[in-house]
Design brief:
Blueprint (H helix, E strand, L loop, with lengths): L1 H14 L2 H26 L8 H7 L1 H17 L14 E3 L12 H12 L6 E5 L6 H11 L6 E6 L3 H14 L10 H8 L6 E8 L2 H4 L12 E7 L9 E4 L5 H11 L5 H10 L4 H14 L3 H10 L1 H4 L18 H10 L1 H11 L6 E2 L16 H13 L4 E3 L2 E3 L2 H10 L4 H16 L10 H15 L9 H17 L3 H18 L3 H17 L3 H18 L5 H16 L3 H19 L4 H16 L3 H18 L5 H16 L5 H16 L4 H14 L1
Parallel strand pairs: 1-3, 2-5, 2-6, 3-4, 4-5
Antiparallel strand pairs: 7-9, 8-9
Length: 690
């Protein structure tokens, strides 16, 4: 009997399962009771007490009634949640292989799980983002991470709504549904999935909610499982929860490249990621290119920097060999060409600008770059078409494009497309940027927003049609950079402007303006001997082609006066500074910002001549003009404060330290603590305190 019971236990265990293991426990319990009874009975043969088997023979039914509930105890003790066993491996339908190189996204995956399992957020969640940002990879990774929690996982390619019906028909056969009509296949599939709940269905690359409405579960059917939709399209917030997926963080980008490409340093990976805008698909493509071609990371970075439009078409992904960044948005652009051709023109213009917020006002005005910009409704739908298809993002009154979207659009433009776009953009930018950089109090914030686009449009040799406009843009950009203290970037821009104007010929006045800005840069960089011939040539050119009382000549005179002071020729500088002040006061009035520059120039000459009593009132007047026109922390105010502090220190005025401290703080804020002008200001403060 014992051997038979053991054989039964072994057979049950071999078949596996939690229920079988509990039955084995019950049988084992009965065996223990039986063997114990035999042992006790044998031992009791030497005792005056009757053995247990004697009691069993006399009262068999009573013993049986006692043993039955005892044997059922293991069954009754099982946890409630384990009474309905689930298969350890769920069934799947067309689920892509897991990406073994999947990187980061932990927080987003946790948030997606929280939303799907939260009754308040619903069972349908949409992962929305730019093409190539990794929406599909995220959805697939979610499926694999939570595979044990589902009994069925399906993957539907939703890019073409017409093909979804055939996929549901195939899914119906997978679920052993036969002879189901096309009009009933979707609800029948979800009905069948009730037997396999909870389930997960991923709709990959879906379009607008209206195109998927017949394929999504509704009512009671939706409560049996979870749905994840990946899409580039906007407009889902009223139908489902939306998880916006952004590009990688820089840390995630560096982690992927360092892990995938042996020998990649964190510094090189950082620079590659910068060029690729941290787009996950582009980073995977880059890793594939370097691995296949055995290209050193530094060499790949050089290729990216010089030939980005070509490089985004090279490199394969192991699991998606036909997918490259260059063609990622091609279908969306073709759709725009059919439905919103003006949006394609806008996209091509934006592709030539910087990957920074693009002011939408750039395309309007009296002579709009885009015809639709003349009609507010047409313009809104044109801009909205780019945002709706995930090609751009609206940010208030600006439009933002990813740098690789721009590169892909540039690569697909006809041969004359980039040149034509640059000609149109040069005119629009020249009309948009402030020309009076020193006198316009609002010039600085407007220039900050437009400077990246000016630099992008003017970075290469210009088409002949816009060479003159390009020269002016380059000089104005250099002038703005001088104002904010970035002389190193300003210098090559101004040199290019001068070269363009000289090559064009017949532009003496423009050449003179270029020379003055170039002279100011060299003077501020501590090279007054280089600056002097430049400003003297500018003065000669302007005196030959402009009226004698032109404010441009006043600028030349003031610049030459300050340059001569640096060279120690103070006596020669004095009449030049006085004449500059006279011209600008007559042209602009006494309280103009250009008058303040002349006052500072004249005060500097007097200070160098040791006549502080004459210099101090000139500086104070200049400071009052600037404080009335500029924001309190403007660099021009900081410079005037520092100059006045020097004058007051010479006059033994104790307020000099406070003025110098305030001026130094302005320079620290605007230029940074390590800028040479800031360091000089801090040195002055320390000297005045002693």
């Amino acid at each position: 009997m014992l051997a038979s019971a053991v054989a039964v236990a072994v057979a049950v265990t071999t078949r596996g399962g939690a229920m079988r293991r509990r039955l084995v426990g019950a049988v084992a319990g009965l065996l223990v009771l039986f063997v114990g009874s035999l042992a006790f009975n044998a031992a009791s043969g030497h005792s005056r007490w009757p053995g247990p088997l004697d009691f069993v023979r006399v009262h068999p039914w009573l013993v049986l009634l006692f043993l039955i509930p005892l044997a059922l105890v293991p069954l009754l003790q099982q946890p409630r949640g384990e009474r309905t066993p689930r298969p350890t491996t769920p069934a799947t339908y067309r689920l892509p292989p897991r990406n073994t190189h999947f990187t980061g996204r932990d927080a987003t995956l946790r948030e997606l799980r929280r939303r799907l399992t939260s009754a308040g957020d619903g069972a349908i969640q949409v992962v929305h983002g730019l093409g190539g940002v990794g929406k599909t990879q995220l959805a697939v990774e979610y499926a694999y991470r939570h595979l044990p929690k589902y009994r069925f996982v399906g993957f539907i390619d939703a890019e073409d709504p017409d093909l979804m019906a055939s996929q549901f028909t195939s899914l119906a056969r997978e679920l052993e549904l036969v002879e189901v009509g096309s009009d009933q296949v979707v609800p029948r599939v979800y009905g069948k999935l009730r037997d396999r709940r909870p389930w997960l269905i991923i709709f990959d690359n879906g379009e607008k909610p209206g195109t998927l409405v017949r394929a999504l579960p509704s009512g009671d059917l939706a409560s049996n499982g979870h749905v994840v939709v990946t899409t580039r399209m906007s407009g889902w917030s009223s139908r489902a929860g939306v998880v916006d997926l952004e590009v990688f963080t820089r840390q995630e980008s560096v982690e992927l490249l360092v892990r995938r490409v042996p020998g990649t340093t964190a510094e090189t990976a950082d620079r590659i990621a910068e060029q690729l805008g941290d787009l996950p698909l582009a980073l995977e493509q880059a890793a594939g290119y370097m691995s296949y071609n055995q290209t050193a990371p530094g060499e790949y970075l050089a290729l990216l920097t010089s030939r980005l439009e070509e490089m985004i078409a090279r490199g394969e992904l192991t699991d998606r060999p036909t997918v490259v960044v260059a063609t990622l948005w091609r279908l969306s652009v073709r759709r725009l060409e059919r439905e919103q051709p003006e949006a394609v023109r806008l996209l091509e213009l934006c592709a030539m600008l910087a990957p920074e917020p693009i002011p939408l006002s750039l395309f309007g005005g009296p002579d709009p770059l885009i015809t639709a910009a003349a009609d507010p409704l047409a313009w809104d739908t044109t801009v909205g078409a780019l945002a709706g298809l995930g090609l751009a993002r609206r940010d208030g009154s600006s439009l933002v494009l990813h740098r690789l979207v721009q590169a892909a659009i540039r690569a697909a433009m006809p041969d004359d497309g980039p040149a034509n776009a640059r000609v149109r953009l040069c005119g629009a930018l020249l009309a948009a940027v402030p020309h009076d950089i020193h006198g316009d109090p609002d010039a600085r914030p407007r220039w900050h927003g437009l400077l990246p686009h000016v630099l992008a449009v003017t970075k290469d040799d210009p088409p002949a049609e816009c060479a003159a406009q390009t020269a002016v843009l380059l000089r104005l950009a250099a002038e703005f950079l001088v104002q904010i203290g970035d002389h190193g970037v300003a210098l090559p821009l101004c040199e290019r402007a001068l070269a363009l104007d000289e090559a064009l010929g017949g532009r003496d006045a423009e050449i003179g303006f270029d020379l003055i800005v170039l002279a100011q840069i060299h003077r501020d960089l501590g090279a007054p001997r280089t600056a002097r011939p430049l400003v003297e040539r500018a003065l000669r050119l302007h005196e030959s082609c402009l009226p004698a009382e032109s404010p441009a000549i006043a600028t030349d005179l003031a610049t030459l006066a300050r340059t001569l002071c640096l060279l120690g020729e103070h006596e020669a500088a004095l009449p030049l500074a006085e004449r500059a002040l006279h011209i600008d006061e007559a042209a602009y009035g006494p309280d103009n910002p250009y008058v303040s520059f002349d006052l500072i120039a004249l005060a500097t000459v007097h200070l160098d001549l040791g006549d502080t009593a004459k210099a101090e009132p000139l500086i104070s007047r200049a400071l009052r003009i600037r404080e009335a026109l500029y924001v309190p922390d403007h660099l021009y105010i900081g410079y005037a404060l520092l100059l006045k502090a020097q004058a007051l220190h010479t006059l033994d005025d104790p307020s000099a330290v406070d003025l110098a401290s305030r001026g130094a703080q302005i320079l620290r804020t605007r230029l940074g603590a390590t800028h040479p002008k800031t360091e000089d200001a801090l040195t002055l403060v320390d000297r005045l305190k002693r």
